[in-house]
Design brief:
Blueprint (H helix, E strand, L loop, with lengths): L1 H4 L3 E2 L7 E2 L4 H9 L2 H12 L16 H19 L5 E9 L10 E10 L8 E8 L17 H18 L7 E7 L2 H4 L1 H13 L2 E8 L6 E2 L4 E2 L3 E5 L9 H10 L6 H16 L4 E5 L11 H6 L4 E6 L12 E3 L2 E3 L8 H20 L5 E6 L7 E6 L8 E8 L7 E5 L3 E4 L6 E8 L12 E3 L1
Parallel strand pairs: 5-6, 5-7, 7-12, 10-11, 15-21
Antiparallel strand pairs: 1-2, 3-4, 4-6, 8-9, 10-12, 13-14, 15-16, 16-19, 17-18, 17-20
Subcellular location: Secreted
Main location: secreted
GO molecular function: metalloexopeptidase activity
Length: 446
């Protein structure tokens, strides 16, 4: 137990918790994420001319077909280096015409590389995704040049780079590295996989989409920020039932959805392993009136979040390549910041590696409500998979966006001298190496 107790957290008011101890294997993987590799990947994706979802599928050098075949071949190269453990496939489906952005039925393909978990009793699945399609100013223009370097070759490159590194290692849970199609036409690739996952009963513990994660300069505002990354997460789950809504209202849990808990987890773990990084938790599902590939997963009831650069440059997004009045437009690879993409890639890797190595989350977590008291007693059951050496009880004030304190305990019931009226609590399992599970928000129990 001494190894766990050594993982004490230092807290500064208003700043997320950090740890002085890092897992050496995770740290090594984090440092392997290469800005040079990411630049090569982004430039290769940009070289296909356009990756519009409805562009050419027969050419070997241009269009969506050439792009997806190359992505698949890259994943297969990493699979060979991993001894075949990384399973690579097209996720093929027919998207019916929608009368808007899909003019006629189209055969579309996500590219998936699956790294199976090593624990047969661990059925958790984690998905990391970027969309590989691109667009010009006219969303239905399938022929004009649309390099899509930041939107979203940057996110696709992160999926590829992490597959290269992580496929050489073993994790208890399964990780799927995804290059999604059809995002610009209506989130169609992600929607297909989300529905398929739901229908087949996949236990998706969390889904991350990296979309627009390669720019550090904000147009119009003249802001440059290479430290900050936004994490968007929904508050009230899209699939919440009437009974769940009533419970949420009675305990004040509108800011403690699984997506919000995961975003807090992301901030803590990412800032633990990646220096000069500020994870900004944005408490809405996505940007104002906009959406991304995590949205279909949220709508199917899965925990899903979006990673996006802090200040978007709208001269680069959804723009024909041109120069007007001395101002350059277009999402070209020379405008991407590859050291920043590296930082976001390292953030993704740290979070995925830590949670995929950790035990699964505690079960039936509750706060005892049989007596009126100014203390708080929590109880729970052991995780379904993994070896939990102990548990952390997390606590924060009701106005705080982050967990402020973590109490280590070795039992499955514990009483704290803090009132449940004045604080929020969570519980997570932790193994002997300090890998923490997802955080569970407790329910009232008698």
């Amino acid at each position: 137990m001494a190894g766990i107790i050594a993982l004490l957290f230092v807290f500064t008011e208003g700043i997320a918790q950090t740890t002085v101890k890092r897992d050496p294997q995770i740290q090594q993987m984090v440092e392997e994420v290469s800005a040079q590799n990411l630049e090569i990947l982004v430039k290769k994706l940009a070289s296909f001319g356009t990756r519009h979802t409805l562009s050419d599928t027969t050419s070997k050098t241009t269009g969506i077909g050439a792009a997806r075949n190359w992505i698949k071949s890259e994943f297969e190269k990493y699979s060979k280096a991993s001894g075949g453990r990384l399973k690579v496939d097209f996720d093929t489906f027919t998207q019916p015409a929608d009368g808007r952005r899909i003019k006629q039925d189209a055969v579309l393909k996500n590219v998936l590389a699956t790294l199976p978990g090593t624990n047969p009793n661990d059925h958790r699945v984690f998905i990391i995704s970027g969309h590989y399609d691109s667009r010009a100013s006219d969303v239905n223009d399938a022929k004009s040049k649309a390099p899509g370097a930041v939107d979203d070759a940057s996110g696709t490159a992160i999926s590829l780079e992490l597959a290269r590194i992580m496929s050489k290692h073993q994790f208890s849970a399964t990780i799927i590295f995804m290059a999604a199609v059809g995002e610009e036409q209506g989130l169609y690739g992600a929607a297909h996989l989300a529905k398929k996952s739901k229908a087949e009963g996949w236990n998706i513990n969390a889904m991350i989409t990296n979309d627009i994660v390669g720019n550090t300069y904000g147009s119009e505002t003249d802001l440059k920020d290479n430290r900050s990354v936004r994490v968007f997460s929904e508050g009230v789950p899209a699939t919440e039932t009437k009974e769940q809504a009533a419970l949420r209202t009675s305990v004040g849990g509108e800011n403690d959805s699984p997506a919000r808990q995961f975003s807090r987890y992301v901030k803590e773990i990412a800032e633990r392993y990646v220096d000069q990084l500020d994870v900004k938790l944005i408490y809405r599902r996505d940007r104002y009136l906009r959406g991304g590939d995590h949205t279909p997963f949220s709508l199917e009831g899965f925990t899903a979040v979006r990673f996006t650069e802090m200040n978007e440059n709208f001269d680069r997004q959804h723009q024909d390549i041109r120069t007007e009045n001395g101002r350059d437009y277009g999402d070209l690879p020379e405008f991407a910041d590859y050291n920043y993409i590296q930082k976001v890639g390292r953030m993704n890797l740290a979070v995925l590696a830590n949670i995929a190595k950790a035990p699964s989350e505690p079960q039936n977590v509750g706060i005892l409500t049989s007596d009126l008291t100014n203390k708080t007693t929590l109880k729970w059951e052991a995780p379904k998979s993994g070896n939990a050496a102990g548990y952390y009880i997390l606590m924060r004030e009701t106005t705080s966006p982050f967990w402020e304190k973590k109490f280590y305990v070795s039992t499955t019931q514990h009483t704290l001298p803090y009132s449940k009226d004045n604080y929020f609590f969570g519980v997570q399992a932790v193994d002997t190496d300090g890998h923490e599970s997802a955080i569970v928000f407790p329910k009232p129990v008698r």
